[in-house]
Amino acid sequence: MTVEPLPSLDAHAHLSLSSSGVELARSGAVLAMTTSLEEADLAVGRREPLVIWGPGCHPRKVQSQQAFEAGRFRALCEPTAVVGEIGLDMGSRLYGCAPLDLQVRNFRQALEVLASMPRLVSIHSYHATRQVLDELRRRPIRVPVLHWWTGTAAETREAVALGCCFSVHSAVARQSKFRSHVPPDRLLVESDHGYNDPPAAIPCRVEWVEHLVGQQYGLEAAEVRRLVWLNLAAIVRETGTRSLLPDQMGAILDAASGDR
Ligand SMILES: [Zn+2]
After folding, report:
1. What is the block-wise mean pLDDT of the chain (260 residues), using blocks of 10 residues?
2. What are the CA-CA distances from residue 6 to residues 69, 74, 120, 143, 145 (Å)?
3. What is the distance in A from the centroid of ligand 1 to the CA of 85?
4. For residue 183, how far is its CA from the centre of ligand 1 (angstroms)?
5. Per-domain residue ranges for the chain?
6. Fold of the 9-257 domain
7. Looking at residue 257, what is its pLDDT?
């Protein structure tokens, strides 16, 4: 069975909690990240047909980092197939971040939770690609997804060997390290759409990054779309999270991957 046309699948975006389900439906399928446990409290109980909300703690958000609590994080991760965004950011000289020791403490606690609770985990690593790989080596998790990855070619090879997937943003899609070092079955695409970024009304759009990734891998954009759904289906199988998906999302995954 095939589902045509497949909706777009944005593997990392930030949606406004004040948007209605009808408004969110304009964005296609989205793995929606939160930046604090406070936001996640309001998000993970929502049921939109094509949105999976992930509990997160953004490394740039000082208040989020200070308020992180591992037990609360664990409880928020339990009912959802996706977690994020979490990670490390060492760009503090550029724009200010939570103190690195606090970021590392929280990231380690989050990975500890996720080591025994497999999920698709969207990870931020800006100016901290080496540090994130070191932490994943120290405490491996089932499916780390490196979002907006800016690591070197050598780090990219290392990440692939560690089992990472990559959600590729249009800003990095042309970099040859993906084509050269990342197998197609590790790819997702993302907008990193931020609802506070102007123009706020534009929903998530991943057509351009589908096109760019297609150019790199010699695929049509429609083939890239099918590929990312297949890759998400594989991640869901690997993490055993099929029962946690919204019904419509699960049905598309099943049909796209020919499971049933
Ligand atoms: Zn983000």
Report:
1. 76 91 86 97 93 96 96 98 96 77 97 98 96 98 97 98 97 95 98 69 80 96 96 97 94 80
2. 38, 32, 21, 24, 22
3. 6
4. 23
5. 9-257
6. TIM Barrel (3.20.20)
7. 81
- Let me know the angle formed at the C-alpha of 233 by 156 and 163, rounded to the nearest 5 degrees: 25
pLDDT of residue 197: 60
Whether pTM exceeds 0.85: yes
Instruction: State in Å: Cα 209 to ligand 1 middle.
Output: 16
Q: Is the dihedral of CA 225, 231, 234, 239 positive or negative?
A: negative
- Cα–ligand 1 centroid distance for 13 (angstroms): 6
Residues across the chain? 260
Residue 67 · residue 46 · CB < 8 Å: no
Cβ contacts of 198 within 8 Å, gap of 6 or more: none
Residues with CB under 5 A from ligand 1 (ion): 85, 192
pLDDT for position 1? 44
Contact status, residue 164 vs residue 145, Cβ threshold 8 Å: yes
Distance 222 CA to ligand 1 centre (A): 25
Chain position carrying tokens 């997702």: 188
Q: Which amino acid is at 86?
A: I
- Which residues, 6 or more positions from 189, have their beta carbon under 8 angstroms from its beta carbon? 9, 10, 11, 167, 168, 169, 173, 206, 209, 210, 213, 224, 228
Distance 147 CA to ligand 1 centre (A): 8
Treating both helix axes as pointing N-terminal to C-terminal, what angle do 129-138 and 100-115 enclose, rounded to 10 degrees?
40
